[in-house]
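Quick question, first post here. What does this chain look like in 3D?
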Amino acid sequence: MRREQRPADRSEGFPPPGSLPLELNRFVGRTAELADLTRTLGGARLVTVTGAGGVGKSRFAARAAAVAADTLECDGVRRLDLATVREADLVEYALAAALDLTDHTSRPPRDVLLGHLARRQLLLVVDGFEHLVDTCAALVRELLGAAPGLRILAVGRRPLGVEGERVFPLAPLATADAVELFADRATALLPGFALDDGNREDVVEVCRRLDCLPLAVELAAGRLRALSPADLLGRLDDRFRLLTGGTRGALPRHQTLRTAIGWSHELCTAEERLLWARLSVFSGRFDLDAAEYICGGDGLHADAVLDVLSELIAQSVVVREEADSVVRYRMLDTVRAYGADWLEASGDSGRMGRRHRDWYMGLATWCELDWFSPRQAEVAARIALELPNLRAALEFCLTEPGETHLGQYLAGTLWFFWAGCGRLSEGRHWLERSVELDAESVEGDYPRSRLKALWVLGYVAILQGDTIPALGALQECRDEAERIGDATAVAYAVHRTGCLALVADDMPRAEELLRTALASYREIRELNSSVLMGQVELAMAVAFQGDLAGAVELCEDVRLVCEDHGERWTLAYALYVLAYAEWTRGDLARARQLLRECLVIGDTFDDLLGTVLSIELLALVTVTEGDAGEAALLQGAAGRIWPSVGLPLFGSAYYNAPHERCAADARAMLGDARFEMFVAAGARLEPGEAVERALGRGAASRPAAVPSPRPAHQTPQTREPAASPTVQGGEAAG
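> Answer (accepted):
Ran it through. Tokens below.
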């Protein structure tokens, strides 16, 4: 499912994955190059901007993409930043995130990407691929072959080597532009600074010494609080002569940059150099609390981190970003790599990796607790923002000796994000990797972290419709949990096994297992979104067996608990069941109101299952109101979403009955030809457009209502239970 922008991302205010980066300061120069690259993009589907580190490739490409989007016939621009992706296996997941693509199924990520892009006109910027060039080249080749409307603007120090690639070498700035850049950044640092006859020649010579590389020029300008342009020139001249034997006129540009970074590094205080190295442990953005915890101590007091960090910002070593009063920081990849080399040389990289892991494990733990609270949306936003660092922590745990059980813990703790925020495929990747490793015993006991990873893996597999692996994981979890007496893990394993029975249409067994699990939860005093979702799933099981009043009672109880705790995600599924009950009673206005709330919540959390089920039921309400055309259109829209969720209506006779009833009624009112016309129109809607339509925001474009052969207030004589609020047998965020 594709949406323009996640609410979670909007709540933080930072550009969501896939957006072009915000321009925090003025773009200087490159007018001719921008025009040339725009023309090149018009005639080639793959263009790669190449150049030395620090030459400004990323910013130039982002500016060019924004300009080209206005001239090329494309749906928009998306950006894949691979600088924070360390493993080849994660490239496809990173691209899915950049495309805002949600898929609940077990289809290979590449198949999902190919299907999504095949029908779109898109400009994709792929940045920072050098360390993953073979993987990226193969992916780009396949994407271009399957998606005729796709254009790719790649950015790296070398070409991809793919057929049809046009290479666009980016040279350093012209001297005049480099001087203008220096002056612009200097003025931002020192508002009283101005180029004049007393300093102009020195600034020009500094820029020339730095080969007019933008990053090097900015680093030099960041030194003006302590040095004059003349002092800069003198120190820089000495540094270059020392490292290059005096052959300043023949410096390779990559050495120029490294020399400039090294020179800037030498001018730092001991504390600044220490923090620079330690900050390299972060992947992507970070906040002050994380920096103080991870980087403080052993030569740098945590209370001093802010002051030292401020100095690094002033020197252009660290970039400060602010949105909605939230401040975060990041390092350019070249600068970060330099710091990482120093961290490794100091022998401190392992300790920093463990402190980084500890911080993000703590963050995940607190977010899991906060998921069952009024802060659910903020939790989803925070985890999405911290995903690069969480990936780094997971990778550390699963590759470092003795850390496997911590990797299992972290992968399991993030269940609410994998399942509740449309990240099933990546979640399964980490969960399977964690349980494939032999877990270390903790104090001689079977590691409970593995039990949690197993039931979460079973849950995710159920949500993807992959029942055999789900059953295997849940059975191992239950057997081992019973052996060591872990009542909590037993309850979760029984719960998820009940979900399997639910989607398999074995309602008596589903009811038995779900009641057993809920009783166990009460006994151990377990209460969270997963427990409440188990109660909603039980409501569906009893409703399918004819006890609608019992189902309503269960969901009303869930509703009260959710409202007490500020929980929204599970609430949507309870409201879904209650909306079905209102439909059976003939209160169509109330049913529609409840479904609108379901759709808003589902859209907030990227919950495809909740979204498509609500649209399906809304279609049934709509045809009962007498608008058969809109009902058919909604069914067509739902039909487009289902392939990203799994088997339509889980292949279940119980779940499918309301859909069939709606289709039969609408077809009878419209006739075959008009019914199929409306269904086809719905199938052309993007999922985000379908949600807007279902919410009534696209009412102006609706076709006229088709008269119903029976009064709109009259309800059918017989009803079948509507689709279950479970995602192929599980809550969307257990």
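The chain has 33 helices and seven strands.
The two ends are 21 Å apart (CA to CA).
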